[in-house]
Design goal:
The chain is built from 9 helices and 8 strands. It has helices at residues 4-16, 29-46, 56-69, 74-96, 101-104, 113-124, 141-146, 167-180, 230-246, and strands at residues 105-108, 130-134, 155-160, 186-190, 199-202, 206-210, 223-227, 248-249. Helix 1 runs antiparallel to helix 4 (74-96) and helix 3 (56-69) packs antiparallel against helix 4 (74-96). The longest helix has 23 residues, at 74-96.
Length: 251
């Protein structure tokens, strides 16, 4: 049976990656799968969380059916897609009341960058010794806006892609080292192979998936910071420990 934490994670991921339903034509496999997953989360959540509106699941299913069937009326398709998304947001809100969001993660609406800072900060403050931030497209934001939220004396490590990180990261790295020295240890490394994940790993034991690059987090699209289930986290942590060990330090 799904738990509130699992459903919260799934709902957040779905809301952070909504396909573009404002178009004509037959839905793609990705769009069809998104609709099916959204309905599954809404149905499963109704078994855990009291649903005030008894017609909510019916409304969601009807809206999804219209989205699938309306191949020529883009307006009607988009209107029903928004109705389904609204139901999913309400479900997320109810689930959020049942989980420890600072540990599980957070859903951040588009444009709410301050909330993104808070959500990441809530995760980072639980670190005891070490923080690893993984972002292929890292720029100065990952240090100035996010790593800066880490507690003093916690080791902060940044792992990025050698071909896709932004030049401002190197400047921010140099400024950080001069400003904080040993008070806030920092190590930035470039992976030998291309990176794809955006992750937060704490103390080599817990992992969160971030659905966007830190430099763009919630700037124009909704984002989620999602706790990775233990069995998957163990694999990711081990893999990134090896990638970190083979990476080379930023000059």
């Amino acid at each position: 049976m799904s738990t509130p934490e699992t459903l919260y994670q799934r709902a957040g991921i779905l809301l952070s990656d909504v396909p573009n339903f404002e178009r004509q034509g037959t839905l793609s496999d990705v769009e069809d799968q998104w609709l099916a997953a959204a309905i599954a989360v809404i149905e499963s959540a109704s078994k855990i969380v009291t649903v005030p509106d008894v017609l909510e699941i019916f409304d969601a299913k009807y809206a999804a059916k219209v989205v699938v069937s309306q191949t020529t009326n883009a307006y009607l398709r988009a209107t029903n897609a928004r109705a389904l998304i609204s139901v999913l947001r309400r479900v997320l809100g109810r689930l959020e009341l049942q989980v420890q969001t600072e540990i599980v993660g957070a859903y951040v609406p588009a444009g709410d960058v301050d909330e993104a800072y808070k959500a990441v900060g809530d995760v980072l403050k639980t670190a005891a010794n070490d923080i690893l931030l993984v972002d292929p497209f890292a720029d100065e934001t990952i240090l100035n806006a996010y790593a800066d939220l880490a507690p003093d004396h916690i080791i902060v490590r940044i792992l990025t892609d050698p071909d896709r990180y932004k030049p401002t990261l190197k400047t921010a790295h140099e400024l950080w080292k001069r400003k904080y020295r040993d008070k806030r240890p920092l190590d930035v490394r470039l992976a030998k192979a291309p990176l794809h994940d955006r992750l937060i790993i704490l103390d080599g034991e817990r992992a969160w998936t971030v659905t966007q690059s830190f430099k763009d987090l919630a700037a124009t699209h909704p984002a989620t910071i999602v706790s990775t289930p233990n069995e998957i986290a163990d694999l990711k942590i081990k893999a990134y420990q090896n990638i970190w060990g083979d990476a080379f330090a930023m000059a």
